[in-house]
TrEMBL record:
Residues 18-198 form the Metallo-beta-lactamase domain. CDD domains: RNaseZ_short-form-like_MBL-fold. InterPro entries: Metallo-B-lactamas, RibonucZ/Hydroxyglut_hydro. This is Ribonuclease BN (tRNA processing enzyme). It comes from the Bacteria. It holds the Pfam family Lactamase_B_2. It comes from Kribbella amoyensis. GO terms for molecular function: 3'-tRNA processing endoribonuclease activity.
């Protein structure tokens, strides 16, 4: 598998990166994990819109899903339309949420361009086996494990510390983990995001091989967050940056 970072800015787009979006490719199939604010433009540097095989949404906060509105427009109004519908996997209610976001009637909403499915725990998407688990966040949110052959990567989405993430990430080759909060900040709210120490500790408990820190808001420094994650994770730790590619 090849993991390409499309957008990695946490909570809002930053001056050098869109919000969350990651491209997982294998066997000529392209799975997009999240399509947050500003990500669609950057995604088109990696592939054309009709080449998207499927999209998986961790949750329905705008920094993880809102560029589905732009994708809908591209699919509906491109001179090359109509295209085959693109499958979109996400929390229950995703179709209605996206219709509301674009002020569309719920019927048909975006259903003529996008084919919506709810996460079911284990699903086959293209050449991938995809497993999900519910995380702790103010809205329904899922971590996503993508397996291909003997290789696996896990994307946390947004979550506070939880044993469910440790179990989903058990033995993964790569854990793409958010670290949106700073260590030892008494203002950190519970059940919202991870600190670098949290990310490292959960990666260690899960026995992952490679930890990649992402979803750092523009008001914090990515490299500092990554350095702090090394305090609790003894293995390889990298920083997600726009356009970075990781082979799994």
């Amino acid at each position: 598998m090849k993991l390409t970072v499309i957008g990695c800015s946490g909570s809002v787009p930053g001056p050098d990166s869109p919000a969350s979006s990651y491209l997982v490719s294998a066997d000529g199939f392209h799975l997009v994990l999240d399509l947050g604010s500003g990500a669609l433009g950057a995604l088109q540097r990696a592939l054309d819109v009709p080449e998207i095989g499927a999209i998986g949404l961790s949750h329905l906060h705008p920094d993880h899903c809102m560029d589905l509105c732009g994708l809908y427009v591209a699919l509906k109004y491109s001179p090359a339309a109509p295209f085959p519908r693109i499958p979109v996997y996400g929390p229950p209610g995703t179709a209605a949420r996206m219709a509301s976001a674009y002020d569309l009637p719920f019927d048909p909403g975006m259903e003529e361009e996008l084919e919506f499915h709810a996460w079911l725990g284990v699903q086959t998407i293209g050449p991938f086996t995809v497993r999900t688990a519910k995380m702790v966040h103010p809205v329904p949110a899922y971590a996503i494990r993508v397996e291909h052959g003997s290789k696996s990567l896990v994307y946390t989405g947004d979550t506070g510390p939880t044993d469910a993430l440790v179990e989903l990430a058990r033995g993964a080759d790569l854990l793409l983990s958010e670290a949106a909060l700073q260590d030892d900040d008494q203002r950190n709210p519970p059940d919202l995001h991870l600190t670098p120490a949290d990310a490292g500790a959960q990666a260690k408990r899960a026995g992952v091989k490679h930890l990649v820190i992402t979803h750092v808001p523009p008001w914090f420094d990515r490299d500092t967050q990554t350095d702090h994650a090394r305090r609790t994770f003894p293995g390889q730790v990298s920083t997600a940056t726009p356009g970075a590619v990781f082979e799994v």
